[in-house]
Amino acid sequence: MSSEGRLIARMREVLPEGTRTMLGSGDDCALLEAPEGSFLVTADALVEGRHFRRDWSTPGEIGARAAAQNLADIAACGGRASGLVVAMVIPPGSDEDWLIEVVSGFGSEVAKTDAGVVGGDITGGEDFTLAVTAFGYATRVVTRSGGQVGDTVALAGDVGVSGVGLGLLQRGLFDPQARGAALGVFEYPVSTYRVPKPPLNAGPRAAVAGASAMMDISDGLGLDLSRLGKASGVCVSLQSDLLTQFVSAHEPWLDLALEAFGMDDPMPLFNLGEDHCLVATFPPRAPIPEEFVPIGTIAPGTSGLVVLDGEPFEIGGWDHLANGFE
After folding, report:
1. More confidently predicted of 207 and 158
2. Which of 62, 138, 199, 289 has its CA 20 to 30 A from that of 324?
3. Predicted TM-score of the model (pTM)
4. What is the DSSP string of 56-91?
């Protein structure tokens, strides 16, 4: 590998500057415009062997995944991203071109927005790691704590799909390097695991429409809805006939995936995590943006309780200190 200075210079060449950047990468700090008077901040980390594997994902997909999940958190508060910074832990002997492909994939995902990659840090270490901090803005911030009894609960984006893709890779049902048509009917869930597809525009639209609460579903539907319910002090009541709309939308691979997992009931798929879709609650008179599909209501009951057709819905979900590839 070449010097730190050369590597950073190559990274800058493939990263977007952003429309709100007043001072970008190259100084001790970046400077971003914040005409709203406040800004959103979120952070996330991806560790090799824990969140991704090189034999499953290309370097570009790894970078894009890191960007997508941070951008989803900004959207979940009704915001749009303005800038991101990235700290990288690089193992000894890493291939410089591989690293540039990771950074290029990250930059390409960010470039779909108006945000810039405005700085970061690199250091040596044992496990390749991407630690990302994203900044954003919103004309109206939506939190998890505003849900009220009588609100409609609605989802935007895919739920359960990414977790299925991960499960299929774990079971070794095909060449882990396969892409596109070589994956057959499993192309969509596997590609969604490799690079999440968060509905970034849906978050700001929900905020404008008057959403009372919203969050990113990344650790499983039951677990994250329980978090929203606890924050709002309400019970979340789901309807199976509405959830099956998400199930039926993913034929023909769904039945084959259930067979591979040894499952008859598709409902546990919603708790696999890694989705980065959005859930929002809307007051009765609020228009629901077209990206959102109703799946239930906010009901009287125990704070944080999630029920499906009146019965407790298994929370399940992803625990970052317990789960992993092993």
Report:
1. 207
2. 199
3. 0.91
4. TS-HHHHHHHHHHHHHHHHHHTT-EEEEEEEEEEE-
